[in-house]
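Q: Sequence in, structure out?
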Amino acid sequence: MASKRFEKGSEEWQMFREYWALCQQFWELEDNDEYWEQVIYSTNEFYKKYKENNEIFAKEIALALVDTLDKKSKKEKEP
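A: Exactly. Output:
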């Protein structure tokens, strides 16, 4: 099976670093509009930054983060 090592400083390496930072920034949920507006803005900026060379993957992982946060939020609100 072939594997790929993302070299430090490469676009892919930077993309994963920034994604990790996004996850850390928003993982603790807040129940206010400002939090969700920042989630949407930041994930959209992430996607726009990496869409030229990694369009499908950048979009999918950005959406995965938003979807995960949304599901966590709904689960926390369940009785």
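The chain has a mean pLDDT of 95.
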